[in-house]
Model the fold of this input.
Amino acid sequence: MKDLFSSYRSASDSKTEAGPDKIRAGDGSLWSLADAKTSPSPRSLRSRPWGLWRYREVLPDAPEDYVGLGEGGTPLVPLTLGRARFDAKVEYMSPTGSFKDRGAAVMLAVAASWGVDRCAVDSSGNAAAAVAAYAAFFGMRCDVFVPTANSPSKLAQPSMHGAEVHRIDGSRADVAQAAMAFVEGSDAFYASHVYCPFFYEGTKTYAYEIWEQLGGRAPDSIVLPVGNGTLVLGAAKGFRELRAAGCIDRLPRIVAVQAAACAPLASAWEEGSETVAGCDAGETAAEGIAIAAPPRGDEILRAVRETDGEIMTVSDSAVRDARAQLARRGFFVETTAAVSAAALLQRPDLCGEGRSVVVPLCGSGLKGG
Done:
């Protein structure tokens, strides 16, 4: 992936020249990256240190002296909750305590290779912490835009990493608009976990690690929380690349889970729609996935349909119960990170006899919220 922009594409605009200063294509559509055409061989992986960058054949080039913060390589742990048996991918054992480190590490390594010295991000919490940490690592200034109503505990990390925090009144969409307006009026790079396609190059390594940890095979299903879809789309891309390379013969079924109080994707799914209309964002304890109008919503629907998957909802009470059950098994997760476990407790049939199911424990309970 030496020529980073040669693989940029949008769904409907082939004329706009891509570049680090282009948030969207000329027609307003979002950028994505073509799938990798190769994969690391199991033999080559044996001698490499465990972590995200062991899959370098399918990743953008990092700066030559890049050592990282230890991102990737999270454990896969067998777990039983009630009648649900699954493998938990403990993503909160990441440098800043969430899976967002995967995307931030790759995105800002690429930005550093461009000579970027200032970045901005909008987030409800975990992406802000991840981007602020990697910006600090690369010596970049960082501006973080968050909802005023956000959990105060989630602002401690970006602040400690030296980021300037901007509190914005309104919805998550209002926060994103404020960040984009700031970027357009400054020299900052928009380090968006939603808009920047290089973020998904990081989150796709979630799939590569599962493939390797399961002995070179895909699970039957992956059950993922979904708001903006950064993990759903990254995982889908990773497994798609593995299938194209002949490493697996089928895609795992994606079960995407939303909070019942804010579920535009689930509503579109139930209606059989190919597009996602916005919804009124009701209050939910799972604030990390409370996205009323996900910018890549249509892509998420396609990714789930491609795997013959489904999109479902869980109540806040079910999520809180799942969080408590996880804690009693030794896993302390933030509320949003219990969404997938709540889905399996609600639907143990998803883990049918002999079926391999993987669930991410996305964020640490030490973050609060």
